[in-house]
Amino acid sequence: MRESKPKIGVYVCHCGTNISGKVDVEAVSEYASALPHVAIAKNFKFMCSSPGQQLVIDDIRKNDLNRVVVASCSPRMHEKTFRTACQAAGINPYYFQMACIREHDSWVTEDPEAATQKAKDLVRGSVARVAHHQQLTSRVVDINPNVLVIGGGISGMQAALDIADGGKKVYLVERDPSIGGNMSKFDKTFPTLDCAACISTPKLVAVGQHENIEMMTYSEVADVSGFVGNFTVKIRKKPRYVDADKCTGCGVCTEKCPSKVLSEFDHDLTKRKAIFTPFPQSVPNTPVIDTENCLFFKKGKCRACEKFCEAGAIDFEQKEEIVEINVGSIIIATGFETFDPTPLTQYGFGRYPEVYTSIQFERINNATGPTSGKIVTKDGKKPESVAIIHCVGSRDQNYMKYCSRVCCMYSMKFAHLVREKTGAEVYEFYIDIRSPGKGYEEFYNRLQEEGTHFIRGKVSQITDMVDSPEDEGKLMVVAEDTLARKVRRIPVDMVVLSVGLKPAAGIEDIARMVGISVDSDGWINELHPKLGPLATPSDGIFIAGCCQGPKDIPDSVAQGQGAAGAALSLISRGKLEIEAAVSAIDPERCMGCRQCEEVCVYGAISYHPALNICEVNEAICKGCGNCAATCPNKAIDLKHFNNDELLAEMEGLMFGPADFHHGTDEQAA
Amino acid sequence: MKYGFFPGCSYKGAAGYKESTEAVSRLLGIELVEIQDWNCCGATSYWSTQSIEAYVLPARIMALAEKQGLSEIVNVCNACYSTLRKAQEKLAQDNDLNEKVNLALAEEGLKYTGNLNIRHLMEVIVNDLNADDIKKHIKKDLSGFVVAPYYGCQLNRPWADIDDAHYPVLMDRLIEMVGAKPLKNYSAKTECCGAAHMVAHKDLCMPLNNRIVKDAVSKSAQTICTLCPLCQFNVDASQYKSGLPMVPVIFFTQMMGLAFGLSEKDLKLQKLLTPFKLAV
Amino acid sequence: MMTDSVLRDRFFKKYHGQEIENCIQCGMCSGSCPLAPHMDFGPRQLFAMAREGDMNEVLHANTIWLCVSCYNCVVKCPRGISITDHMYSLKKMATEVGIKPPKMLHLYRSFNAPVEKNGRLTDVMAMAGYGLRHPGAAMANVPLGLKMLSRKRLELKPASVKNIDGFQRVLKKAKELERVS
Predict the structure, then answer these.
(1) Half-sphere exposure of A18 (CA within 13 A, CB side)
(2) Is the interface score ipTM higher than 0.90?
């Protein structure tokens, strides 16, 4: 239904010489002026400039235009600009159509004549289409100012702090008993060698104490529904079996617990108790009971922790809780986990006691780790030589084909620490040293000066088979020294496998819940690799840190701050206009077959069992058209891309003015 | 249980492999149906010198098996096993080659379809039999007998599907099943013995064999257990007049035979170059 | 002598060698190779040379003949390159261009000859053929041979397939097909 007879203005842009260098813009505007319903046709140097927009606005007002076509660049560049101009002049912004004669024409066509002809065709199509446009109004929704941050590593903590400091409420969900993430396991950080704990512990404390942050540790996101500005999230709080309000964090329970198991935090290098906090600076410092190893849960007796807890905080009756929260945006900061090198049997991890993963070696170097920071072998000896093996699991199509980005640098940090603490010879086996960062290459140079052996070659084997008696008891590291082009067998006392980074387990579940995707390696897909690194295709869902791909600490922190900024920007808007070009299901025609629901990648369609029909949530719909194309009963119309509009455009494109004239007149009548 | 059987050229001449395989299969109820009129698989020698014949040789063996109505071919040699599998894999991927191979086989009225499972006897015993079916035949206590499981190269490489490429465990399990002790930290279990290069480049291959022997001896193995005639020969013969500490090298079927109470004579253990005497 | 570029083209196209362009030169193959220390160039370097077209040098290197087919490199190659297969191809190419036959080619020929004739092989037959060309090696193995003989380990009777005519027709056809391809 159209309100009035179309009266169209056509504006052909020169785009400097981008278009006019190839397309005869004068001829195109002259041609356009003769097209049906066209009242005015002009050409102008830069339509997107202020005078260009003003030209459109003035013409609309003076000549009572009710439709506008601009023939210029891609709608991705300036559709919004001209819609806004139309609106400013008092006509519905959806009465505008853009003909792309730059990307689709002048830039890709050799022959000026052909380019001009194509421009005329494109303009003709747009004119035919715009005559069929309908008025659409976009909806406005309020934005809930609360933010959910998923993951309490350095990136998530930074995001939470920035938002909280900005005066907004943050829910920080962490599945482990303490926040801190991987960084709290590290000792020193490259390339400055400042102590990881010294710089991260204050963040943990700040998060724990911030009045705007509600920490939910030992908790997981169970369900997300709603849309940008209005998400409802269910959080599963696992029982700690310790009442956090009563617990003083004195640690007596842990001391008295008789059950010992391998420590996850120390990556199996030490044992922890069944009631424990992961590390001394844990936030919160309320312990949890690991029911799989607690004697009371396993065998029904013990309760030593309960007996000795003066605060009476032990509560064996605690149950899992589902908490529902409402937020306007979500930041995913689920981070990474390290690659398990067990499948690379040629390296003997798990078989040779002196083969460690890099994350284990971080713990060995850490003052709160298994050796209180001393670098010693399992039998307590200071090593005379240490091999550090790069690219374990990374850059290897048998495991992870990508470069994990941080291993070269942390490996060199290890080399420095080994040299400093033990004076041992250090062999770095690398394929390529990747040190792109401020002060990183200089750090590599420093390590060279310190006498680290850099051997270019991927290690083929680690074995206890030695060829000469003096190497007895050592591990032989076998690799081709590709620069000296000889195979070396180097005897060492310790081996560190610099394992790559992979997405934290469970990332697909989170991605699915918020309606976004992961790439073939399992990392979250950002909205745009260059221009949308922290956004996702789901509005209101942001990402930060290693959940998108391996990153070092500075980049993770920067992304945390960036995502916080994006969330705050959204909150500051207060209200959000929702795109009107969305699909609509005609309830009269819908048969409830749910095929549309299946093809909707945004989760915008839901099924009503009672009515046996499907419905579109306009706030989530992106107007992709999948559903409209799929619906077997043609019950779905994609607004602004309905059949009427698309057919008119195609007719306009395909037929000359004579046929076109005829067709449009009949339809318009 | 009935299987097609490809003995390969070196089976008969290998030190007691044939005798022990026959004795053990009989006890376990494994019927090995020899492929009639089989030929040499060609092995590395043909891969290195011929493009089509290298496929025709293994394809003829497999076509003969198909003609006999066999669906599985059991091998006792790593090289035969890998040659058959490799040919099968490539022929499945390359239609043109498949066509040519069948053109050649048609000269003898044979047809290769590739519809066969290529297997190794050791893996068949471990995977197809119940542990109890094996254990019930044990007559002799080998609990003090430390056996170094030596797998060689071509059983698990390049496929690494029935077991790990570098640190396999199937034969370890078999050793355990018959009551002996697998050498747990035998690092040389998939080190290369040099294969045919022992003939032309003995000087280069001796250190490889020495490593295999030394790792077993220094870790107190009483024997090395193999599953390939060429591996067995190289590791055994390399010790001949080497002046280094020695360890006998037997076939897995001989080890099983010992546990099942067969005599050293029945198992032809006297044919080994490094003398074997069970002392448990 | 064929030019390097013709040989490279032949290796890449006829023998599917193009895959070596994926190599990142990490050296995993050479480090894994049991005989690499004795090679003129390890497989890594050989491929670096081949892809830049130093094919004559590649085909004259002892590298290809020292490959023992242990597949250690193949299972570990981070780029999934079928290194052993490329060694087979290069051996065939080296033979085609008529290099001076190395010991391993003599051995392969001594192995293939009785197979062609009888369809089967005995160790004695292969050794006898090889021993004729390398009497030194044969003499060095006499004590071991005698020991084997004393243990009734030597199969002196030649083995053969029964339908030898059929077998030879098959091989003849295969040779014909090989010539035309």
Answers:
(1) 18
(2) yes
